[in-house]
Specification:
By secondary structure, this protein is of the alpha+beta class. It is 51% helix and 11% strand. The structure holds fe (ii) ion.
Length: 375
């Protein structure tokens, strides 16, 4: 979360003079924009929730803030991110709709803004937490009229009460947060649907080639682990795993008599087989989501020395993800049994991989692969 430090804090939400107010509002909008940009670069949902609370507490200048989302399975509002609250409070706090301040906000869909909790008769039973500022703001997170959670802030650092303007600002932050959370949720659902599609494609490929059953998923697992060791970020790792899972998808269109031939292939048959990266890329390039998979599907048979196919790319011209899959693909093929040959021992497979380091394979990838396979 180092990136968060880049966002300049707005010290006060509301100033005394109109000129100051205008200047601070401009800063406020700039800050919100920066947070919005940051939110797009965050791959982990928990970090996104943290960012929302950080934004709310920074901009509202409070010591305490929490984001609560409604858990449909438990029918309760739960804290998914907070600032200034102990782990214990976060763990035990869950509210039914209508229960407590946040529960009321969730149920009614209306913000609750309190200038002095001790004088406000609505909250006498609920002032277990010490609100030294005495005031707080709690606003609903709405998506298309549906309420998905509540954003709370209290204990301003200045110890001054919140103003109506502050309530409006938190409402803007909550609207933005609700939209970001919903978009993330939709994106995840879409990704899950795509992953299901990929799994179905991989299974179809496995069923067509029973002799190499499980090859794609083993290559996918190896490639994921190797890519992680080589420094790929989490979101790219998932893409690499999924692409590796269907790296040979172009083989689906190859005739059975060639694809399933239980013997070595002739030169002309080999040429047909060698069309599979292009055929696979042709299918994949039709979908925006699968476009990320293209480097692996198109280039996993390129050689580091430029003597591979389909384009004869060389060295760093070959995407690193494809160089990774290339090693994992060859390794699994060597140590697996084929109808026309016995599997190589791991020791002999290591020798082969080393023999082709610098020609077929990227030596840096081979080095890391061998370190990984020794563990
Ligand atoms: Fe292949």
């Amino acid at each position: 979360m180092k990136k968060l430090n880049k966002v300049k804090k707005v010290k006060k939400v509301i100033s005394s003079t109109p000129a100051k107010q205008l200047g601070e509002l401009v800063k406020l909008v700039e800050n919100m924009h920066e947070y919005n940009v940051l939110s797009h670069n965050i791959s982990k949902t928990a970090q996104l929730y943290d960012l929302i609370v950080t934004e709310a507490t920074d901009i509202m200048d409070t010591r305490i803030g929490s984001l609560m989302l409604f858990n449909r399975a438990r029918c309760k509002l739960e804290i998914v991110a907070s600032r200034g609250l102990s782990r214990e409070v976060v763990k035990i706090t869950s509210l039914k709709p209508g229960e407590g301040i946040a529960g009321k906000v969730f149920e009614s869909g209306r913000s609750i803004f309190c200038e002095d909790i001790e004088k406000d008769t609505r909250f006498k039973k609920e002032s277990r937490i010490k609100y030294y500022s005495k005031s707080f703001v709690s606003v609903p997170l709405k998506v298309n009229g549906r309420i998905i959670g509540v954003l709370n802030v209290n204990n301003r650092k200045s110890r001054k009460p919140f103003t109506v303007e502050a309530l409006n600002i938190l409402n803007v932050i909550a609207d933005e947060a609700a939209m970001i959370i919903e978009n993330r949720h939709l994106l995840r659902s879409l990704e899950n649907a795509y992953v299901d599609t990929i799994a179905t494609l991989a299974k179809a490929l496995d069923e067509r080639m029973p002799a190499t059953k499980g090859h794609s998923s083993r290559v996918a697992d190896l490639s994921y682990r190797l890519a992680r060791r080589l420094g790929f970020r989490e979101d790219r790792l998932h893409s690499i795993r999924n692409a590796a899972l269907i790296h040979d998808i172009g083989k689906i269109s190859i005739p059975d008599e060639i694809l399933l031939k239980p013997a070595a292939l002739s030169a002309s048959e080999r040429k047909i087989i060698q069309k599979h990266p292009e055929k696979g890329s042709g299918v994949i390039s039709k979908s925006d989501y699968f476009k990320d998979f293209l480097p692996i599907i198109a280039f996993h048979h390129e050689w580091y020395n430029g003597k591979g196919y389909p384009l004869g790319l060389k060295g760093s011209q070959i995407p690193l993800s494809a160089r990774i899959v290339s090693v994992c693909d060859a390794w699994d093929a060597m140590i697996s049994k084929r109808p026309y040959r016995e599997p190589l021992s791991k020791r002999d497979a290591v020798k082969e991989i080393l023999r082709f380091a610098g020609s077929q394979f990227d030596p840096r990838v081979v080095k890391e692969f061998l370190k990984m396979s020794r563990r």
